[in-house]
Prior knowledge:
This protein is mainly α. The chain contains four helices and no strands. It has helices spanning 3-17, 26-37, 40-52, 59-70. Helix 2 crosses helix 4 and helix 3 crosses helix 4. It is globular and about 30 Å long. It starts with a helix and ends in a 7-residue tail after the last helix.
Amino acid sequence: xxxxxxxxxxxxxxxxxxxxxxxxxxxxxxxxxxxxxxxxxxxxxxxxxxxxxxxxxxxxxxxxxxxxxxxxxxxxx
Length: 77
């Protein structure tokens, strides 16, 4: 795994961990944060990671990236 991907995974997990208190709306909140503040290339990388493995994402981060993937074009290989 690249160090950039490691950083993206770590950031997604941190955002998720910092928003668990939002309960049922947490995944949507994290999704919105990623959508608004992450560069297109970052979103493509984390979606591709989820689709090929995703094992290091926390469950909440995984849910948020799944939501993100629903609104994004298929990542380039």
